[in-house]
Amino acid sequence: MVWMVLQTLAKERDFRSMRVLHFAPEPCFQKRFRTMFGKYETADISGRHVDHKADMCQLPFSEGSFDMVIASHVLHHVLDEETALKNLRRVLRPGGVAILPVPVFSDTTVEYPYPIETQRRAPGMDYLERCRKVFDKVRVFSSGDFDPKYQIWIYEDRSHWPPLLQLRPRSVGEKHKEYVPVCIA
User: Fold this and answer.
1) What residue segments make up the domains of the chain, in order of their start?
2) What percent of the chain has pLDDT over 70?
3) What sign does the dihedral 49-89-12-8 (CA atoms) show?
4) Taking the alpha carbons of 101, 103, 107, 113 in that order, is the dihedral positive or negative?
5) Phi–psi pair at 70, nearest 5 degrees
6) pLDDT digits (tens, 9 = 90+) for 38-67
7) Does domain 2-10+21-184 have CATH number 3.40.50.150?
């Protein structure tokens, strides 16, 4: 779905002139992004196979360094989500864009008392409100905004979770919307 959101944004912005920072870069996107954007850089807290070893809560970049930041399904792993959001906002130029989807499990986020695997929380729809507190504007794309032939929904049984994930809320059905917030500085 991030790819379809980018295709929509490409009609509105000149990607060739943009400096982009991609956190926890998915291998399937890297080759495409290197040719799509003017300058494409990668970052991850581990520092493996990326251009920058960087913690979102302590970004080593100057204010207004990037035109776009992409971090797909990353922020629910970050210890201090608010600090990370503020840092991502700080490194964006005015009018810059941050594409920051997380898996949404319910209306309200569940903060785990301890990390479950590497996850700190099960995000809820209130994540979008936290983004709105930091960014000037947040445009939200959802699965229903695109042609269903692409099957951009999350298909999983959320009626019961394994013991490790019992804190996550349960929900009926096997087809759930995916959300991609596009946050504008």
Assistant:
1) 2-10+21-184
2) 100
3) positive
4) negative
5) -120, 125
6) 999 999 999 899 999 999 999 999 999 999
7) yes
Round to whole Å and give the CA distance between 122 and 139: 21
pLDDT in tens, 133-164: 999 999 999 999 999 898 888 888 888 888 88
- In the numeric block, which tokens belong to residue 10? 């490409």
Which amino acid is residue 154, in one-letter code? I
Please name which of 126, 104, 127, 122 lies closest in space to residue 112, comparing C-alpha atoms: 122
**What one-character-per-residue DSSP string does the chain give?**
-HHHHHHHHHTTS-GGG-EEEEES--HHHHHHHHHHSSEEEEEESS-TTSSEE--GGG--SPTT-EEEEE-TT-GGG-S-HHHHHHHHHHTEEEEEEEE------BSS-EEEEEEETTEEEE-BTHHHHHHHHHSSEEEEEEGGGS-GGG--SEE---SS--GGGTTSPP-SSSEE--EEEEEE-
pLDDT over 90 (residue 94): yes
End-to-end CA distance of the chain: 22
**What confidence tens digit (pLDDT) does each residue in 3-49 have?**
999 999 999 999 999 999 999 999 999 999 999 999 999 999 998 99
